[in-house]
Structure to design on (458 residues):
C-alpha cells in the first residue's frame, strides 16, 4: 500500500509541476508593449519590452516621428520640399539639409546609380498618382532634369541648377524619422525596442536578453525567405512587389535606374543590415539598382553594411559578411 | 473488494492513474500542436487602430467591409479589393507568416498575422 501511495503522490506531483510549468510559459510571457500609428505613408509600430510604464516613452517617440515626417512630405502643397520641387524655393531647414547631404553622399558612393533627384521620373511614371508606361521620348526628355549634380548645398541652403529638378526624399527620410524616434526612446531610458516603419526595421537592444528575430519577405511568395537574429541593427528592404504595375506581362516597379529612366532590373528584393542609422540611408535601394555583384562589392568596400538579395529568378544570395553566418534562420 | 497483493490495482487506482497521465500529457501535446500550427492560425483586421474582425486562417472566407474585400485562402490572407488610389495594399498580395502585415494607408486598415511567439519573427522587413 505504501508504495502505491508513494507512486500516486509522485504522479500527482509530476502532473501539478507540468501543468504549472505550462501555465507559466503560456500566461506569464515576458511583457511587450506595442503601439502603432499611421504616418510616413505607411504604418509605424514600436514594441518595447516591459510593463505599461514604457507607454509614455513610446508615445513621445511617435509624436517626434510624426513631427519630422510632416516636414519631409513631398506631396503636401504646403511642405518645404513640395515648394522646392514645384516652385524652386530654396531649402534652408537644417534637418532637410542634413538628410539631403546624406542622400548625396549615397549618390556619390553608388556612382550616381542611386539618385535622390528621380522625382520627375517617378512623376512621369505616375508613381505618385496613376501608374502608366511612358514613351521613350518622354523618358529621354525627363532624364535631362535627373541628376544629383544639379543640386547645390552651400552655407546651409539648397538650390537647384536646372528648372524642373526635384527630389524624392521619401525613402531616405523614413530612416531619419526612425532615427529621431530612437533618440527619444533612448532619452526616455528605453534600452530595448523594435521599431518598424513600413517594413524598415530598427532592432534596439534585446528582447529580454535574446536578440530580436527579423524575417525577410519572400518577394513572390506569401511568407518569408528567412531571417536573422539581430540586436542594435537596422534591417531595410527594397523590392519590386509593392509599388508596381504589370503591362504585357512585364513588371514595372518604382525603383528607378536614373541612367536608363526605367525600373532597375536584375533583383526582386534587396535587404541591408547596418548598425548605424546615420549610414543606412539609401543603401537597400542602392544595392537593388546596382544588382547582386556590384551591390555586394560596395558592401565589402564600405564595410559597414551587409546584404541579402533575391534575384529575379528568385535565388537568394548573401553578401560575404553574412555567408557562413550561423545567425541566418532559414524559414524553409 | 479483495486485495491480493501490492501490485494488484483496483478500478479507482486505474481511474486516478489515467486522469493523472492525461493531465500530465495534455499540455505537452497542446504545446507541440501549437508550435506546429503557429505558422498561421488567425489574422486580425484593424481599422483606425481598432480591431474590426478576427478571421481564422484555417477556413477559406471573404470578408467585406467599407470599400475593401479581405480574402482568406489556404492559410493565407490578402486584401483582394480596395478603393484606394495606389493599390499598395492589394499589390502586397498574400501573407501567411506570423508578424507579416498588409497596410492600407488611405483606409487606415491593417491586416496582421500576430507574431512574436517562441521561434517566430518579431517583425518582417519588406
Amino acid at each position: 500500500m505504501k508504495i502505491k501511495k508513494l507512486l500516486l503522490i509522485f504522479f500527482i506531483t509530476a502532473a501539478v509541476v507540468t501543468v504549472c510549468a505550462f501555465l507559466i510559459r503560456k500566461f506569464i510571457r515576458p511583457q511587450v508593449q506595442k503601439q502603432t500609428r499611421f504616418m510616413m505613408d505607411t504604418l509605424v509600430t514600436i514594441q518595447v519590452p516591459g510593463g505599461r510604464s514604457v507607454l509614455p516613452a513610446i508615445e513621445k517617440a511617435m509624436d517626434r516621428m510624426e513631427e519630422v515626417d510632416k516636414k519631409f512630405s513631398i506631396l503636401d502643397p504646403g511642405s518645404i520640399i513640395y515648394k522646392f520641387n514645384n516652385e524652386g524655393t530654396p531649402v534652408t531647414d537644417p534637418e532637410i539639409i542634413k538628410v539631403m547631404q546624406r542622400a548625396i553622399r549615397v549618390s556619390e558612393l553608388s556612382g550616381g546609380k542611386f539618385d535622390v533627384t528621380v522625382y520627375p521620373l517617378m512623376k512621369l511614371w505616375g508613381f505618385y498618382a496613376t501608374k502608366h508606361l511612358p514613351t521613350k521620348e518622354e523618358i529621354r526628355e525627363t532624364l535631362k532634369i535627373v541628376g544629383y549634380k544639379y543640386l547645390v548645398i552651400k552655407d546651409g541652403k539648397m538650390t537647384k541648377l536646372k528648372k524642373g529638378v526635384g527630389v524624392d526624399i521619401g525613402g531616405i527620410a523614413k530612416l531619419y524619422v526612425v532615427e529621431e524616434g530612437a533618440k527619444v526612446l533612448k532619452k526616455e531610458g528605453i534600452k530595448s525596442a523594435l521599431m518598424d516603419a513600413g517594413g524598415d526595421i530598427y532592432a534596439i537592444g534585446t528582447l529580454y536578453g535574446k536578440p530580436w528575430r527579423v524575417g525577410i519577405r519572400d518577394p513572390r511568395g506569401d511568407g518569408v525567405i528567412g531571417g536573422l537574429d539581430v540586436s542594435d541593427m537596422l534591417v531595410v528592404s527594397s523590392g519590386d512587389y509593392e509599388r508596381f504595375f504589370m503591362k504585357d506581362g512585364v513588371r514595372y516597379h518604382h525603383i528607378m535606374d536614373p541612367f536608363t529612366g526605367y525600373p532597375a532590373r536584375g533583383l526582386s528584393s534587396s535587404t541591408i543590415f547596418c548598425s548605424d542609422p546615420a549610414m543606412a540611408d539609401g543603401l537597400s535601394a542602392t544595392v537593388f539598382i546596382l544588382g547582386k555583384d556590384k551591390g555586394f562589392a560596395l558592401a565589402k568596400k564600405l564595410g559597414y553594411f551587409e546584404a541579402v538579395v533575391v534575384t529575379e529568378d528568385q535565388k537568394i544570395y548573401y553578401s560575404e559578411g553574412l555567408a557562413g553566418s550561423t545567425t541566418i534562420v532559414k524559414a524553409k | 473488494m479483495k486485495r491480493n497483493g501490492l501490485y494488484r490495482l483496483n478500478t479507482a487506482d486505474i481511474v486516478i492513474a489515467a486522469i493523472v497521465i492525461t493531465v500530465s500529457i495534455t499540455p505537452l501535446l497542446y504545446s507541440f500542436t501549437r508550435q506546429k500550427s503557429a505558422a498561421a492560425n488567425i489574422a486580425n483586421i484593424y481599422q483606425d487602430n481598432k480591431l474590426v474582425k478576427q478571421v481564422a486562417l484555417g477556413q477559406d472566407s471573404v470578408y467585406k467591409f467599407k470599400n475593401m474585400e479581405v480574402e482568406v485562402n489556404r492559410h493565407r490572407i490578402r486584401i483582394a479589393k480596395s478603393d484606394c488610389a495606389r493599390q499598395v495594399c492589394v499589390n502586397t498580395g498574400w501573407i501567411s507568416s506570423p508578424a507579416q502585415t498588409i497596410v492600407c494607408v488611405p483606409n487606415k486598415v491593417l491586416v496582421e498575422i500576430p507574431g512574436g511567439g517562441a521561434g517566430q519573427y518579431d517583425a518582417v522587413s519588406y
About this structure: The longest helix of chain A spans residues 2-27. DSSP finds nine helices and 15 strands in chain A. The radius of gyration of chain A is 24 Å. Chain A touches chain B through 52 residues (CB under 8 Å).
